[in-house]
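Question (not urgent): is this output format expected?
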Amino acid sequence: MVVPTSGALIVDELQYDEEVTFGTKVTATPTYLAVGVTTNPEFSGGPETISVPITGDEDAHKLLLGKESYALKFSYKPVDILFSTYGVDSQGGGSQTIDKSLTMMLSGKMSGTTNYYFAHGCRVETMTFKGGPGRVHEIDVEMKCKQIPAPATSHGLSSETLATAVSATPWKFEDGGANPVSWNSAGIDCTDITVRIQRNLKEIYAGDGTTARVTYLHPTERKITGTMTVVHTSKTLLDDEIAGTLRTLAWVLKTGSGTLTLSNVKLDALSSLAMPESDVVFEKYNFTATTAALA
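Got this back:
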């Protein structure tokens, strides 16, 4: 009997393995690691269509395959920082940085049969961290990929180690201790924070004689931006915003396990300093940083 596939029928949660050669999964004795507590994985893309016109006919002469472009989007709640470093840390660090392309994989039931969904040659395009008191950290990810083949009933791996279902407790804001967000090494009363890392991947097509797939997927300018809301208890942030003073912004995701540190942070604008009669005063800022590290 034909049974529609749903996210509830996932067998192997979204997981990843570093590639040795860009766009090629390691087939012999690979070890896959879980991303975290993932939700809403979404594969997309394929070859564009080239419509070839011809004089004397209003319809296309031929429809041909053009450049291929693929993407993978998902959200996850972290239980460690292992996957997050691929989106945050600088180039040149080797393993566990954007230097390494990834094979992403999950499996799910299709009409009762397990099928494996792969994405090859993946790198993080954007990674957005979101958090606040009483909330579990949420990280939104957009990846660009070299290829996403059709699912298959065999994963094509040998002596593989696949990640087991995540059992660890996802991190929440309070896991960072009192005042997990600090400005210039001083804790601040932050009620909401978002940090977005954009890698501006350049898709380069050099051709392989057969397909028009991406030959290189190269990170270019790293842009680090964000927003935060802070209880208005002093004028420290206002002074720094007006003067354009660059500071360090640190967010302890979990004490002893992971801290997101932004350097040379400039408060771009005070987006709000509302003073309602029925509430306390909050400062809301947009900010930009020059560097970011996760350790």
